[in-house]
Each structure stands twice: as structure tokens, then as C-alpha cells.
Amino acid sequence: MKSLQLPVVQLSEQTEALRREIRDFIHEEQEKGMFEPKCDSWLSGYSPEFSRKLGERGWIGMTWPSRYGGQERSAIERYVVTEELLAAGAPVAAHWIADRQTGPLLLRYGTEQQREFFLPKIAKGECYFAIGLSEPNAGSDLAAVSSRAVKVEKGWILNGSKIWTSGAHFAHYMITLCRTSPMNQQNRHEGMTQLLVDLSAPGVTVRPIHLMTGEHHFNEVIFEDVFIPDEMLVGEEGNGWKQGMTELAYERSGPERFLSTFPLLEELVNILQLTGEKRLMGQVSRLVSRLWTLRHMSIGIAQMLEEGTAPDVAAALVKDMGTQFEQQVAEVARLLVSASPSAAPSSRFEKLMTEAILHAPGFTLRGGTTEILRGIVAKGVVGK
Amino acid sequence: MNDITQILISSTTKIMKDICTKELVNEAEQGRWAADLWDILADSGMITVAIPEELGGNGGSYTDALSILRLAGKYSAPIPLAETFLGNWLLADLGEQVSDEPLTVAFPKGDEQFRFQKHGDEWIISGKARFVPWARYAKWMIVLGQSDVEPVLALVRPANGKIEYGQNLAGEARDTITFDDVLVTDCRVIPIEFERVINQLWYGGALIRSVMMAGALERILELTLTYSSERSQFGRPIHRFQAIQHQLALLAGEAAAAGAAADYAIEAYQAGRLSKEIAMAKIRINEAAGTAAAMAHQVHGAIGFTYEHTLHQSTRRLWSWRDEFGTETEWGEQLADQMMTFAQNELWSFLTSK
To answer: Domains of chain A (ranges plus CATH)?
Structure first.
């Protein structure tokens, strides 16, 4: 049961100063018309220009060593920067995956050459990555991955496909989980390897899969005899499953797991203030209390990651509760303020409501479905 | 968490496990005072934690005291520990001496105000307080009211008034005390700033109940995990079924959220902030209490619904405590007062500032 106890984190004055700095920056950019607040901006707010600006200020790859373009700041400082960006609904999708998980993965398992080549580019906000896990026949059952790489002279030949790949149409590379030995039914986690695939290489096809809104985020990425040079192997051949799972720990429990609809919540509060509906605000205060709690749990996990513990169970738990919360915001908002969310919204509230409702199904699917997460939590607390 | 807090936690856990048994809690509900439990806590110096030595206390922080209280909540301790903490902290704040005798606090509801008339060296007291926790066992009771000249806080002996027994949903003593122009020599009457003291009691009360509920939620999670491992149906322990696993995961989530909310409310109280953090914690933990109690019962099946099983000792307390010192609606209104007044687009600042 110790696995559920999270530390109480006191943010230092230095961290709060950093918060003011990023907040001012965001405010200025918004005033300049650089962006409009958007729900789910870490998935759908694509702006290479904004990413580059963050890179210039040292807000991408913040925790990495300076020799790779990082700022050597703490995980908590990075946390504060990312939560400020998400709360503002700022367009951070371009660099999000690279900053959140590719960088840490390469720092942990990458070769020196890979780190020197990729990390500074990522930190500048110029090099974007896609996640290469799910496949048409491997969703929640990720161990069913069947994309296959065969060893040839000086490299590998990759065949297969990845699916639900957010941003593959703008990303430069993908960390691809594939089989380098035939599947062993007794231990399906064996024989998997992570390869760094250049998405502009011959044999790579990126096919859009439009969301139900018509927006283009998802893709299917097809590999036909793609040559991957030896130096693009990440970590060890055959260790891909374990490495991929480490990557997932960074994916869960971050502020993007409960702030995807925050811009709508803030707009809801704005409206109730203007209309003077104190009783309805009382109902919003329950959402706010939930959010306050989730945020502190999530910061506690960030602190544990910083200290080198892997709070997998707590991370799965926060992601489950956080994504339920994101969906709940839209449900409460629609009952408290009458509006007509639509493709041609007449107010900011309607626009955010439209985004929140139509993006909501994805919240509890991406990065591990609710069902998978609850299984992880239950097994973790039962201790079996 | 420092070493002293750790020692307090381990010794309190031992006391609770040894003495605060299922039988003791049930007997208390039948009307027996848990004297042994109180005495051992008093002898170990646990009752007056967080009060300076010069005022008769044992030193230490609120965080220390609330760690003890969380365990009292976890083990359903049938004693006015929370009320004694709350009352003594208030007295210490007013510069008064405290003791380790059982104390309770009558939080004034509606127009329940006591009147105190000076009569030579004595006081004539009148007033009525309902639902006072553990009043029949308390040596002293804090009541708020008016003297002829000013608002006052008074320390009176419940035994000097008329005591009508009552109980909350968990069978904890919640008594009605009536003083009908009673002439009292044995009391302390202290002038106060009324609004400030009411505020301290209201926020302090929400905090102590929140912390106790966090403890009780930890307990029902443990009981449910144990039960789901021991109980077999269809040839396997029920925790192997996905439907049960999902309940366990949600229950664990509520318990963990309550624990985190309580931790941050304690931190705020320790820093002297009687404000939004305690309000948000009480709201979140109240919600957790209802949701988690329902899930714990569902997993336990019929046995958990009986008096024989221990589960009800915690779930009935959760259902009582969530309504004591403010429901979600009451605290929601207080939070709404603050949320109506900050500037537009300031929700995030409100959440991230102290």
C-alpha cells in the first residue's frame, strides 16, 4: 500500500519565479495573437513557430544536461512550465512527444552519437517525434506487436505498420517498437527492439486517419522494406519491451492527463462571474476541488520520478482519475451554461465546449485505456 | 516526514491495534467509555501534541498531531481526540492553559448562542447545544456566546447542564446539552473576537474530520483488498475478476486522493492558512467518503452489510463525518464566494497560489 503514498511537494521561490516568467511569456504571445486557447492543445495545437520560441527560451528539454542543449533544471521546474502551457491551452503538440518521452528515453538508453545528434535539435523545438507502439492488431494488448525488422549488413530491414500515430504527418522521426526475433508465445515480451525511424526514408508511407471531427491527428504509418542503419538502434536489441514500458511511465500522470479541458473550465468560471450565478459556481467548486487534488497527486509523482522511484501504480491511478475528470468538465459545463456547441461556434465558450466534447472519447483511450489502467492499479494494490 | 512524526505514527499504530479493537468500538457504541484507550494516549503524551510546553502541552507540530488523528480515524477510535485537539488548539491560541482531559466543542448552529451573566464571582449560564460530540464523557466543553458586555468563549462542565444522549449514524455520542439559567462556579469565561474564533472552529473542524476520513478510507481500502483476496467464488479469489478489479482500482483512487487532499490541507493549516485548501480538501474527501463506502460494501457483499463484520465501523463513520463541519454544498458556497470575486481568467492563478 506504500505505493499510493505520495510526497507533499513545496514549490521553491525559484520555481515560482519561473512560473511567473513562463506565465508572462504566454500572456504576451496570446496578446500578440500567436494563439487562441484550445482544449487538448498538447495533441492538436501544432505550431512549429511556438515550439521554436519555447526552445529559444530553454523550455524544451529543461531537465537534460547542458551538453545536449538542456538546462539541467529539476523535474518539478519542468512540471511547472508544462502545466502553465497546458492551462493556457497553448499550442505545444509539435514538440510534446519528443520533449516528454523521446528525450528521456535517449538519455537513458541512447548512444552518445544519438544523444549528440537528436537532443539539441529537440531542445531547440525543431525536431519532432512520433510514438510507434500501437499496431492494427496490437492495441491494449501491446505485446501482440508484429512489425518486424530483419538484420542485414550495416542495418535492418523493417516491415509492418503502426497505427493511431498522432502527428506522424509532421514528425521527423518515430521510435518504433518491433520484433527482431520471431514471437515466442511463452514469453511474448522477448525479442522486441526499438528502432529510430526517419519518417522521410524510402518505404515509409504516412496515411491520414481523420478524427470524427474531420481533423487530422492520427495516422497509419506503413513500413515497406525500410532500411534502418545500425546506429539507429535504441538501447539493446531484444530489450525493446522494457524500454518501451519505461517510456510509458513518462507518458502517464503528467499534467496533460487532467488539464486537457482546463480552458473550458476557466471559461465556465468567467461566464458565471459575469452572470453572477453564485449557486452554479458552487457546483463548479467541486470540479475545482477535484482538480486541486489531482494536481497535487501528479506533482507528487513527478517528485518521485525525480528521486528515481517508479510509481507505476500511482501513475496509472492518476491518469485514470485525471482523464475521467477531463470528461466530467464538459458534462458539468454544458449543464451550467446553455450554449450551442457547433462547428461554427459563436463564442469562446462554445468553441471550447465543441473541442472538449468531440475530443473527450480520446482522453480515456490514449496512453493506456481506462480498462488497462484499472487492471494495473488493482494488481498493484492487491500485490499479486 | 521527520523522525519524531515517524515515531508518533508507529507508537500510535501499536496502541490502536492493541487496544482499539473491533470489540472496544462496538462496546463504545453500546455506551461504554473507552477509558483505557484515552488513558494510554494521555500517558503517552499524545493528547496535547502541538501545544507549547508552557501552556501545559507536549510540543510538536499540527502535522504531528494530525498524523495521530488520522490513525484514530483509521481505527474508529471512540474518543473525543479530534475535539480535544481542536478545543485545546483554540485555547492555546488564546493563551490559555490546557490539560489532557477529554474536551469537546459545541459548534454553534443557527442561533444557538449561550448567554453568560456575571453574578458575583459566579456565572449564570443559559443556552442549548445540539449534537455535541462525546459530551457525556467530556470533562469540559467549549461553548461560544455573549456575556452582558462582549462575545465570549467559555469552558464549562457538561455535567452542570442537562445531558440528553444522542448518536450519529456510526453510534458515536452526539449529545444535546441544555443550560437553563444554571448558576456555575466552575467555569472559565474568555472574551473573544467572535468571527475569528468561529472561523477557526469551522475550518479546524473541517480539517479534523477530513483527516479522520482519510484514515477511515485507508482502512476500508485495506479491508476490501483483504476480503477480495480471501473470498473465493467460481473457483478463484474474487480479486481475479475484472469487474472487481475495477472497483478496487476506483476505491484505491478515492483513498489516495483523500490522503493527498488531507496532506495539503494539513500543510495549509500548519502555515496558518484557514482558506481554500481546507475547503477543497473537505469537498474532495466528502465525495470520496460516499463513493468509496459504496464500493467497499459492493465488493464485500452481504457480510459487509452485517454488524458482525468490521466494515460498518468505518463506513458509518464516513457517512457521519462527511456531513459534520460542512457538506460539499456548504463548502462549495464558501469557495464560490472566493471564485466569484477574482478577476477574469484567474482560475489558474487561484489554483496555483497559496
So the answer is: 2-127 (1.10.540.10), 131-243 (2.40.110.10), 252-382 (1.20.140.10)
